[in-house]
Amino acid sequence: MKVKAVTLGCKVNAYESEYILSLFKKKGYEITDSKSDIYIINTCSVTNTSDSKSRKVINKIIRENEGAVIVVMGCMIEAHKDYQNDKVSIIIGNKDKSRVVELVEEYIKTRENQKKLYKDFDKEFEDMFIENMENHTRAFVKIQDGCENFCSYCIIPYTRGRQRSKQVDTVIEEIKTLVKNSYQEIVLTGIHTGHYGSDLNTSFPSLLKEIMKIEGLKRLRISSIEITELNDEFMEVLKKYPTIVSHLHVPLQSGSDTILKLMNRKYLTDYFENKIKEIRKIRPDISISTDIIVGFPYETEELFQETLAFAKKMEFSKIHVFPYSKREGTKASEMDNQVSESIKKERVKRLLDLNSELENNYLNKFLNKKVEVLIEENKDGSSIGHTGNYLKVLVRDNLKPNTIVDVYIKENNQKLLIGDLYENESER
Predict the structure, then answer these.
(1) I need a surface site. Which of 237, 267, 351, 414 has the fewest CB within 10 A?
(2) Which residue, among 263, 346, 259, has the nearest Cα to 310 in the 3D structure?
């Protein structure tokens, strides 16, 4: 039988879906990207729009695949525990994902729909271990789940539950396996990655030190980290180990202290700025990308101008811009002074314009310089890959994927650097 996974949302979902597919593969099922007998739909619920998209995907798959086994799981289910659809074979939340093959085979035998939800779904970390990520040159490793920050706009603490961590030994063994299987880059991911270990009497920097002992590991990337977790121990690790790539994604969410307080973020702009300065003293050319939400309740034009000015001052390499989406069940959804959709749209455009400027400025820093590129694909006689600081590079040569090469950058083509294989520095 054929199995297809449809993944919405974050890198954690991507990792979980890959793990589930690996379980099916071990049992002899055929993994496919085309029409299938079994569909695994891993949903997202970070915004109301995400909920809506998840439902549309489910309904489309049901409509186009009569008789297929359909499994719906994840955050949308945890957010809407009353979700019911007779055409869905199996409904689970964020627990029992490691049991999906078992549940599917039980359904095939009985043809009885199943729905499994638990009050204590977040009691323990549900272990998953992958050996490969099909069609990827970098591999994700999920080290953590859950979040206890309770930002006023966010539903995730309710859909993912309490903070919990994968055992250190398991993380190390998983990374060793992936490195042995020729992965050049490992990406550590979680819902609140930097909070790793608080339930295990250890810390994220301590885990990083252990990972650095793994022989053959070329690159380690952190998917996202909060500014409050860039403590002295983390700074020492970053200073000592160049294997940790020069790219950090540090969510800002707003450049206005007034809005940060309303969001229940755990810092103000001065704190954020000083931490970024510390990071840049250690790694001057580091890429700092971020997330910013515009149109949050009470955001006036003046407060939005504060965000624009602060983002420009921080010289981010990339800004992921999100219009605020009212999320039922969060404190922000009950706030007065909601911003109109037309104003949100206009502010998104202005911030995206700034992003284009900042992104281009950052790319220009690498003109006429040598960079290391992990080759990911070939296209029209050229090769495409990313540097450690996550610059997308086109190399004018047909190179083997999953190799790291030195490239001399000659052009900035807006969002894409173009270069040639670096030959000899003395010839430049």
Answers:
(1) 414
(2) 259
List average pLDDT for each run of 10 residues in the chain, which is 428 residues long. 96 96 97 96 92 96 96 97 96 97 97 95 94 87 96 96 97 98 96 95 98 97 96 97 98 98 98 98 97 98 98 98 92 95 98 98 97 95 96 95 95 93 62
The Cα-based distances of 18 to 59, 103, 315 in angstroms read 23, 17, 35
| Interacting residues of 287 by C-beta distance below 8 A, sequence separation 6+ | 246, 247, 248, 317, 318, 362, 389, 390, 391
CA distance 140 to 14: 8
Our CA angle for 298, 302, 304, nearest 5°, is 70
Nearest CA-CA partner of 75 in 21, 9, 166: 9
- Is residue 206 packed enough to be buried (19+ CB in 10 Å), middle (13-18) or exposed (0-12)? middle
| pTM beyond cutoff 0.85 | yes
* pLDDT of the residue at 424: 52
Token readout for 22 is 């690996």
Look at residue 426 in the predicted model and tell me its pLDDT. 45
Structural domains of the chain, with CATH: 2-116 (3.40.50.12160), 125-245 (3.30.750.210), 249-365 (3.30.750.200), 370-427 (2.40.50.140)
- Strands (DSSP E) contained in 177-256 are 185-189, 219-222, 247-249
Burial class (CB in 10 A: 0-12, 13-18, 19+), 28: exposed
Full strand arrangement of the beta sheet holding 219-222: 138-142, 185-189, 219-222
Distance CA 196, CA 210 (A): 13
pLDDT value for 161 = 96
The 3-class SS string of 258-298 reads: HHHHHHCCCCCHHHHHHHHHHHHHHCCCCEEEEEEEECCCC
- For residue 318 the two structure tokens come to 């990339």
Tell me the C-alpha distance between 196 and 225, whole Å: 10
Distance CA 324, CA 6 (A): 26
Q: What is the reported pLDDT for 354?
A: 98
- pLDDT of res. 39: 98
Give the C-alpha separation, 94 to 165, whole Å.
15
**pLDDT the model gives residue 47:** 86
- How many of the other CB atoms lie within 10 Å of CB of 210? 14
| Spatial distance between the Cα atoms of 413 and 390, rounded to a whole number of angstroms | 15
